């Protein structure tokens, strides 16, 4: 809603000053728990300065979200005894503004500044606002000389070419002493200068007794002069706020989907309140029942409008991964389901449940009994061979028997081949577990995605993964449900689905299960958007934009008029070779410097690694020296101990050292060596060769030789000298080793830095190549798509008029067709990794931010696709609401006293109105008939008149098409025709439609191809161009009729001198009725498109019905020569029935289209008549009024009901205006704050650089302040009317 602040907005950022006051208040916040929809309100007391405020200066109040400013002011006055006004962010705020609208910091805490009211305040518009609004007085003079609005008020615009001479201003509602709405007649208003009728013939304003008598009645109120009315009206108008009508029209015309939805929610709450006074009188008052019915009709209008987006793509295209990434889930959509999952339609939509245990919900819908019986019968027929046994081909998963066996075995896992061969369809259908699920829906609800995924997989996953027969025999297999699933529905709180998008993973319309194929086909007709997914490395090479769609698919798009609904998604953009991509994309020069730098870094890394290796070898030498010193010190320590004990010892020989190491080092020395290694600063492992010394190879006989070499006995001093030397040697070795460790650590750090630099360069190169391939692929796909459309257009143009065909003629702007195709090149794996998911996967190179994966852009595109439907839905509601409120105003203002006209004048006005209404009704009926006539003519000219020629073409090509089926199989080019016997048999069993590894086969479609192919362009011309023009012409004609009618009534009213205010309001109402006609046209265009999509798919079902007997005959044929007999019978049947079946097919479509026209005519007639009846009621209310017998008044209860309705409408409009004013004040405050911040930033920038090129709204590094945001969500107002 324009000019108001949404309570749910996350975009608003309050100014710095407000944040300061807010922070001070929080320092002394009372300890109180705020429940849902509860607020804590802090008010800076009126005698405290905001500049020097402290936390104790605030008073706190606990209120509800729906409470208004006036309620808080009352509580403050009661507490302090001082009457104050409140300021919010230094701006005054309206009394009607609710707390939920001021929750800008999203903490349910609002801070006000109290300002004491002046002792003598002048009357303001707010005071006038408290006076209930007077119902519109249709007696006010029509004279343009008597102004009923302020001079600043602009006249109400009805249409650019027409402006009413009247304008509407809020009138004053006058009540008597009992609080009842005063009858209009008791307000004396001078009329324009027309001859005054005599007392005996002039109707009194109230049709009541004379004024002297009336003054003595209970409703004793003095007359109000016209001057008084004008003064108050001028006071109300002086606020210069747009009227409710203007505000509503602006929202309807220019509002965003979010603004429109917020206004719709607010209006629905208001309508609930509006019903209250009417419900009390519904049992005794017909008008009350009528308005309740109107209000209920508006309340039944649903806010949610689902937008269905189909996702299609070949196996392995990455559809599931893309969808999971869009939904911000690592694994939600069923995957790894082999044949099962690819056949299940999976629908994902927004989860509206607020229950934490139901954050993820699912519904698995199973096919019904008859669908499974039909599927099972066909599968058993293909599985059992002519001998009555299971076919040997059942082990081949690509064969028809293999597919059937996998399906049946999944549902009946305990059945052996012998059991299946002897089982009937009826016996299998009566299996208890299968019978129990058919036709049911299984619901799942979990609080976390992992548990939900596992629960879902239980139903949709294929467990046929064990290849060891011995394991299969040991494990008891459970029933698998995937063959019985019709559709899986998943409900989750993904942001991409929050605006009503419904993503549907479509496996295709040629599923072997007829029920699932029907579901997929049904979704295809409903799709607002169609996402086509293909891996990027095949999308361009295979010309996927042309070939992936297929000729029949593109032609169907042409029939449906849904080219603009296509979105192409290139998946797996992370699958790229930098060398290949740079060569293919011509990026050698751009990457040459990077490659050179990588070569340098690799050489540098090689040198560093060699240096580290050499240093590690040196470190090993010093480690050995340290270990040897430790061993020797142990020996000398032992010798010293022995000398101290009085023993005679000799210097140890090398052999004794070795012996010592071989016996003792296994414990102490090895432990010391380990400690020495652990103390190294280097974290890398190294090998200590000291353990490999051969200490056990000593010759025992050498002991005798050593005895003679002992020398002189050792003394304590000699031992101490030797130990000191060993310690010095060890110290030097440790020092050298530490230096080497430091060098290794430094080299390793340099190596890591080099490797990181190389990784960054490779990432940048990958990003460059990915971006280059994305741009190339995007342009190529768009070009291929446009070329595919051009080919279809050229083909149709050539066949339509070969003599005039010019291939150089551009039948449409193909450059625009190319540009209009959205193409997203995405990497779901990189996005998931950057989002913190897929923890066990390696980092995906080439992506530095989530935006580079294009998943966020795809999510935004998904949400944007919902905007048109959401906006259209809300505009329809608000248009009808505006019309209903205007009608209610007219009704509430009518008190039963009639107009200031004589009986003769009133009768004349009534006759004139009836005459014009009758003319309008006839004119509108004629406009509907003319519209339908043009529609029928368009169908006849472009479609029906071509039937004869198209039927003859189809008849002449039918036998050629059948002969193509019966050709020998061409293994090199299967497209040339011909089927193997098993495939042909499978096609016959499925009434001409079957899909296998070679793709889909539809014999019925192939027979109707000549008709559909030649009719596509004509069809598109009718439904994409001609029909909308016809309906738009109807809208213009209807608007002209309404305008002409209103002008006649308006001119008559001016002449009669009565009802100017009511006529002015009808001028506003005229705009609503015109919008309703525009809305009607859009509804009819949508209805026609839906009906024509049904009709254009009826060509092939008729062919299938005509060939059903032949299909059945061929399916039952068996034995020697059966294949030849099947071919012969089919060829004969097509030849004999071709003329009749093609004509019947076209007649079926013709009847469908004619019925479409009848439905449209009926719908247009009903809705046009409904509009007319509403207009009749409104204009009758104003021109004729509600008449009561002379001397009587409307019952008090009814007058009170009308008064209450008028008050509720007035309150609604007042609160809307106040909310708009509050939002405007908040925007102004933020604007001022932003300007101040920008000025200070500029000054600081000038001080340092003296030149300012650009001032960005980013945090200032000098003072740390944030620039205030101007993203005020003032358009999402949702003011509560509770």
Automatic annotation (TrEMBL):
Keywords attached to this entry: Coiled coil
Coiled coil ranges: 716-764
Limits of the DUF7605 domain: 962-1138
Gene3D superfamilies (UniProt xref): P-loop containing nucleotide triphosphate hydrolases (3.40.50.300)
Database matches in InterPro entries: DUF7605, Dynamin_N, P-loop_NTPase
Signal peptide extent: none
Name by which UniProt lists this protein: P-loop containing nucleoside triphosphate hydrolase protein
């Amino acid at each position: 809603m324009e000019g108001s602040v949404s309570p749910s907005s996350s975009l608003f950022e309050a100014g710095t000053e407000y944040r300061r006051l807010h922070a001070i208040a929080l320092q002394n916040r009372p300890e109180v728990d705020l429940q849902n929809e509860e607020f804590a309100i802090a008010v800076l007391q009126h005698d405290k300065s905001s500049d020097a405020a402290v936390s104790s200066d605030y008073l706190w109040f606990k209120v509800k979200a729906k409470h208004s400013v006036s309620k808080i002011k009352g509580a403050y006055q009661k507490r302090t005894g001082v009457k104050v006004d409140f300021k919010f962010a230094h701006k005054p705020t309206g009394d009607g503004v609710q707390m939920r609208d001021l929750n800008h910091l999203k903490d349910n805490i609002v801070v006000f500044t109290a300002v004491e009211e002046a002792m003598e305040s002048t009357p303001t518009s707010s005071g006038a606002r408290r006076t209930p609004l007077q119902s519109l007085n249709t007696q006010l003079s029509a004279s343009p000389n008597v102004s009923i609005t302020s001079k600043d008020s602009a006249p109400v615009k009805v249409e650019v070419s027409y402006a009413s001479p009247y304008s509407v201003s809020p009138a004053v509602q006058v009540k008597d002493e009992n609080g009842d709405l005063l009858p209009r007649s008791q307000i004396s208003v001078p009329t324009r200068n027309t001859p005054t009728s005599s007392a005996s013939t002039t109707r009194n304003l109230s049709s009541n007794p004379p004024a002297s008598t009336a003054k003595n009645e209970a409703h004793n109120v003095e007359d109000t002069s016209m001057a008084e009315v004008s003064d108050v009206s001028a006071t109300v108008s002086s606020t210069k706020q747009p009227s409710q009508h203007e505000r509503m029209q602006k929202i309807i015309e220019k509002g965003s989907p979010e603004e429109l939805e917020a206004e719709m929610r607010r209006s629905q709450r208001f309508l609930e309140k509006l019903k209250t006074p009417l419900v009390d009188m519904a049992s005794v008052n017909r008008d009350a029942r009528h308005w309740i019915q109107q209000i209920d009709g508006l309340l039944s209008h649903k806010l949610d409008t689902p937008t269905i987006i189909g996702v299609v793509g070949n196996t392995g295209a990455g559809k599931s991964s893309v969808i999971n990434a869009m939904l911000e889930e690592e694994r939600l959509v069923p995957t790894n389901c082999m044949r099962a999952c690819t056949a299940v339609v999976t629908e994902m939509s927004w989860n509206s449940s607020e229950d934490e245990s139901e954050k993820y919900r699912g519904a698995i819908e199973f096919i019904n009994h008859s669908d499974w019986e039909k599927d099972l019968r066909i599968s058993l027929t293909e599985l059992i061979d002519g001998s009555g046994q299971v076919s040997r081909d059942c082990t081949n998963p690509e064969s028809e028997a293999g597919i059937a066996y996998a399906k049946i075995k999944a549902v009946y896992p305990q059945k052996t081949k012998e059991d299946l061969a002897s089982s009937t369809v009826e016996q299998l259908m009566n299996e208890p577990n299968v019978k129990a699920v058919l036709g049911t829906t299984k619901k799942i609800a979990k609080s976390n995605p992992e548990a939900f995924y596992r629960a879902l997989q239980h139903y949709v996953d294929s467990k046929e993964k064990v290849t060891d027969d011995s394991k299969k025999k040991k494990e008891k297999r459970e029933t698998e449900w995937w063959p019985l699933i019709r559709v899986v529905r998943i409900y989750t709180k993904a942001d991409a689905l929050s605006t009503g998008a419904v993503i549907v993973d479509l496996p295709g319309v040629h599923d072997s299960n007829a029920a699932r194929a029907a579901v997929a086909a049904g979704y295809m007709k409903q799709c607002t958007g169609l996402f086509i997914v293909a891996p990027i490395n095949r999308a361009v090479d295979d010309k996927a934009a042309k070939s992936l769609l297929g000729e029949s698919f593109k032609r169907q798009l042409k029939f449906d008029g849904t080219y603009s609904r296509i979105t192409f998604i290139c998946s797996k953009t992370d699958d790229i070779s930098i060398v290949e991509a740079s060569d293919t994309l011509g990026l050698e020069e751009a990457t040459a410097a990077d490659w050179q730098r990588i070569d340098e870094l690799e050489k540098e890394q090689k040198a560093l690694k060699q240096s580290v290796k050499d240093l590690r070898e040196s470190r090993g030498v010093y480690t050995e020296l340290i270990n040897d010193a430790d061993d020797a010190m142990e020996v000398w320590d032992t010798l010293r101990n022995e000398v101290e004990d009085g023993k005679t010892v000799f210097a140890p020989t090398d052999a004794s050292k070795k012996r010592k190491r071989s016996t003792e080092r296994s414990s102490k020395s090895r432990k010391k060596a380990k400690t020495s290694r652990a103390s190294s600063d280097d974290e890398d492992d190294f090998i200590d060769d000291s353990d490999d010394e051969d200490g056990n190879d000593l010759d025992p006989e050498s002991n005798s030789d050593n005895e003679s070499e002992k020398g002189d006995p050792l003394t304590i001093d000699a031992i101490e000298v030797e130990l000191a030397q060993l310690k010095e040697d060890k110290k030097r070795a440790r020092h050298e080793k530490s230096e080497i460790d430091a060098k290794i650590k430094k080299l390793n750090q340099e190596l890591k830095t080099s490797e990181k630099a190389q990784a960054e360069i490779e990432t940048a190169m990958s990003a460059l190549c990915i971006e280059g391939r994305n741009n190339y692929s995007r342009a190529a796909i768009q070009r291929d798509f446009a070329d595919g459309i051009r080919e279809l257009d050229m083909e149709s143009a050539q066949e339509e008029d070969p003599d005039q065909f010019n291939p150089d003629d551009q039948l449409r702007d193909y450059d625009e067709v190319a540009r209009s195709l959205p193409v997203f090149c995405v990497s779901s794996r990189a996005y998931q990794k950057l989002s913190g998911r897929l923890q066990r996967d390696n980092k995906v190179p080439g992506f530095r931010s989530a935006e580079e994966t294009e998943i966020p852009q795809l999510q935004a595109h998904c949400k944007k696709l919902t905007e048109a439907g959401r906006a259209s839905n809300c505009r329809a509601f608000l248009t009808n609401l505006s019309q209903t409120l205007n009608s209610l105003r007219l009704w509430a203002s009518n008190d039963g006293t009639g107009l200031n006209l004589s009986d003769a004048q009133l009768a004349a006005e009534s006759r004139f109105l009836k005459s014009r209404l009758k003319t309008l009704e006839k004119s509108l009926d004629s406009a509907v008939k003319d519209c339908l006539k043009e529609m029928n003519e368009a169908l006849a000219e472009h479609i029906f008149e071509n039937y004869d020629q198209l039927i003859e073409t189809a008849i002449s090509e039918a036998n050629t098409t059948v002969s193509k089926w019966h050709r020998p199989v061409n293994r090199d080019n299967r497209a040339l025709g011909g089927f193997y016997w098993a495939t042909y048999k499978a096609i016959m069993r499925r009434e001409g439609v079957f899909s296998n590894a070679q793709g889909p086969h539809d014999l019925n479609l192939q027979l109707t191809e000549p008709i559909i192919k030649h009719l596509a362009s004509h069809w598109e011309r009718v439904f994409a161009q001609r029909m909308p023009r016809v309906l738009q012409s109807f809208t213009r004609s209807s608007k002209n009729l309404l305008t002409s009618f209103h002008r006649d009534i308006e001119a008559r009213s001016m002449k009669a001198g009565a009802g100017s205010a009511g006529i002015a309001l009808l001028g506003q109402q005229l705009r609503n009725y015109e919008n309703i006609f525009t809305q009607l046209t859009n509804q009819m265009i949508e209805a026609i498109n839906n009906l024509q999509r049904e009709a254009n798919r009826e060509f092939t079902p008729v062919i299938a019905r005509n060939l059903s007997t032949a299909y059945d005959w061929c399916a039952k044929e068996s034995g020697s020569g059966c294949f030849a007999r099947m071919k012969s019978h089919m060829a004969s049947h097509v030849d004999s029935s071709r003329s009749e079946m093609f004509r019947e097919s076209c007649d079926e479509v013709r009847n469908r289209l004619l019925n479409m026209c009848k439905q449209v005519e009926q719908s247009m007639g009903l809705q046009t008549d409904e509009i007319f009846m509403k207009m009749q009621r409104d204009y009758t209310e104003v021109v004729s009024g509600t008449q009561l017998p002379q001397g009587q008044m409307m019952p008090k209860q009814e007058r009170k009901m009308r008064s209450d309705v008028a008050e509720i409408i007035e309150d609604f409009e007042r609160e809307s205006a106040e909310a708009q004013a509050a939002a405007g004040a908040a925007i102004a405050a933020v604007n001022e704050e932003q300007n101040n911040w920008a000025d200070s930033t500029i000054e600081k920038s000038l001080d340092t650089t003296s030149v300012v090129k650009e001032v960005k709204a980013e945090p200032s590094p000098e003072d740390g302040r944030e620039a205030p945001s101007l993203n005020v969500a003032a358009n999402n107002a949702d003011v509560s009317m509770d």
